[in-house]
From TrEMBL:
It comes from Qipengyuania polymorpha. This is DUF4440 domain-containing protein.
Length: 156
């Protein structure tokens, strides 16, 4: 068991150098912002950035009306090419907990919702990181209906 852990640690070193302790919000914000940066880079076909942020064997799955899978940094470009987004948002746990900075190197998950300019269509992407690198992303598209508590639909 220890040999497997050491082999994994040697073959997959953490790309984020951090020491001491940090707030859990900092870790969550880092991975949320990294996820958005990956999508922006994929849309811009910035393969150099993608190679530094996406594992070569990362699995990217599109679960919209057409199911498709893509792999690695090059696959990230194909993965992001099909949707248009104007804005994004993410949710996080607001409780301030001090964690070791090594938390950046643990398995981390974040969901980002991307919305079209007219806010009628959205895509939620679940990102998974290992050792600071994106190893998996799964998307699901959906229609958005917004309203007010005192009235009806805002966009329908």
């Amino acid at each position: 068991m220890i040999a497997v852990f050491l082999l994994t640690a040697i073959s997959n070193p953490c790309v984020i150098g951090a020491e001491g302790h940090v707030q859990n919000e900092q870790v969550q914000a880092y991975f949320a912002n990294q996820s958005v940066s990956i999508i922006k880079a994929a849309k811009a076909e910035d393969i150099e950035f993608l190679k530094s942020a996406v594992a070569p064997d990362a699995k990217l799955v599109r679960q919209a009306h057409i199911y498709s899978t893509h792999a690695g940094p090059e696959g990230a470009i194909e993965f992001a090419s099909w949707f248009e987004a104007e804005t994004y948002g993410w949710r996080y746990n607001p409780y301030r907990i001090t964690v070791p900075a090594s938390a950046y190197c643990l398995s981390q998950n974040v969901e980002i919702e991307f919305l079209s300019a007219d806010r009628r269509y959205g895509t939620v992407i679940a990102f998974k990181y290992e050792n600071g690198m994106l190893v998996e992303a799964t998307s699901a598209g959906h229609h958005v209906e917004e309203g007010t508590m005192n009235g009806g639909s805002k966009n329908g």
